[in-house]
Write a structure and sequence with these properties.
Layout lengths: L5 E4 L2 H6 L4 H4 L5 E3 L9 H7 L5 E4 L9 H4 L7 E4 L9 H6 L3 E3 L4 H19 L2 H9 L15 E5 L3 H11 L4 E5 L5 H7 L1 E3 L2 H7 L2 E4 L13 H4 L7 E4 L8 H9 L5 E4 L16 E3 L8 H19 L11 H9 L1
Parallel strand pairs: 1-2, 1-3, 3-4, 4-5, 6-7, 6-9, 7-8, 9-10, 10-11, 11-12
Helix pairs in contact: 6-8, 6-13
């Protein structure tokens, strides 16, 4: 009997839940290597391991990313399964040239839990929840005055799976909905009563601006000082997507000048000495958007199944570099 193909589980969040899926994993035609020590893997170790497995389950935001030149060195590696919807941290062209299939995860559970996080940040900063928690713990029982999202205007930058999930929650708050999206689902837009506008108009009209676009060369640093200046002084910026969409120094400057009322950010600042950390009207979390059990379990299983489908020749609808299939067929 031939050996099962070896698959390395290098995604820390997936390593958190792997033990609870052992019965399911035992039935699969792969040998999943899920050592907890992989959490501290170094780049030299990663480079070597890439030559010792047919598949890798990885993170698109890994602190120790896969370098493009390594992909061409990995004659054994056939698939990289990213346990997330994003894939900006991997060079897709290099993977395609090396004949390596790259997959991502777009399960509904993953989008729904991130949408929850966006709303948690919105309510936390708008209603000053954490600010009052800190005051009470310091013995200060004074009450401030927050902002409710009810019947306010919500501007959504990006109407993908997560952006649409945020919209569905906004309906219960009777919000006016604005969005900017290059490829909108017009049936959804019409059903939910969304007004499509340009980004500049969205920023100027919204009481809450929620970011839900992918990070790429075009969107990196998209929210900079000139755009922040367009926001209402009473408005809040919510970013449960990627940290680098927003220029941190520009956000701090805009807050210092009262260009907006506050921000909810699902990432700590790059500089842990950033003055943003001293601002009462900014709420931070440590990229917790996907850190809800139902979401992590679903993302893990989908990431594993993607590897199985690719390695066994099954149908996989989550391939983000489909050109690799045509390339591989032409050279086989």
């Amino acid at each position: 009997m031939s050996e099962k193909p070896r698959v390395l589980l290098l995604n820390p969040t997936c390593l958190d839940v792997v033990d609870s899926h052992q019965d399911w994993l035992a039935q699969l035609p792969i040998d999943l290597d899920a050592k907890q020590s992989y959490r501290q893997i170094t780049q030299p170790q990663l480079r070597l391991l890439m030559n010792e497995a047919e598949g890798i389950i990885f993170s698109h935001t890994a602190k120790r990313p896969i370098r493009a030149q390594w992909l061409g060195e990995s004659s054994r590696l056939r698939v990289i399964s990213l346990a997330a919807s994003g894939y900006d941290g991997l060079d897709l062209n290099a993977a395609t040239s090396a004949g390596i299939v790259v997959t991502n995860v777009t399960v509904p559970e993953g989008a729904e839990v991130v949408a929850d996080m966006a709303w948690g940040l919105m309510l936390a900063v708008g209603r000053q929840i954490l600010q009052h928690d800190r005051q009470i713990r310091a013995g200060n029982l004074q009450r401030g005055m927050g902002t409710t999202p009810w019947r306010k205007t919500l501007g959504i930058v990006g109407l993908g799976n997560i952006g649409r999930a945020v919209v569905r929650r906004a309906v219960g708050f009777e919000m006016q909905l604005l969005a900017t999206e290059p490829y909108p689902d017009h049936d959804f837009v019409d059903k939910m009563g969304i007004e499509l506008v340009e980004l500049e108009e969205l920023l100027a009209r919204s009481d809450f601006v929620s970011l839900h676009m992918r990070l790429n060369d075009e969107t990196k640093g998209l929210i900079e000082y000139e755009k922040l200046k367009r926001m209402k002084p009473s408005a809040f910026l919510i970013n449960s997507a990627r940290r680098d969409l927003v220029v941190e120094d520009d956000l701090d400057r805009a807050l210092a000048e009262n260009r907006l009322a506050g921000a909810g950010l699902d990432d700590p600042p790059l500089d842990l000495q950033s003055p943003l950390l001293k601002r009462e009207n900014v709420v931070f979390t440590t990229h917790l958007g996907n850190r809800a059990r139902v979401g992590v379990d679903a993302v893990f299983r989908c990431a594993v199944q993607n590897v199985v489908d690719v390695l066994t020749g099954g149908e996989c609808s989550s391939i983000v570099n489909p050109d690799v299939l045509r390339q591989n067929r032409s050279t086989s």
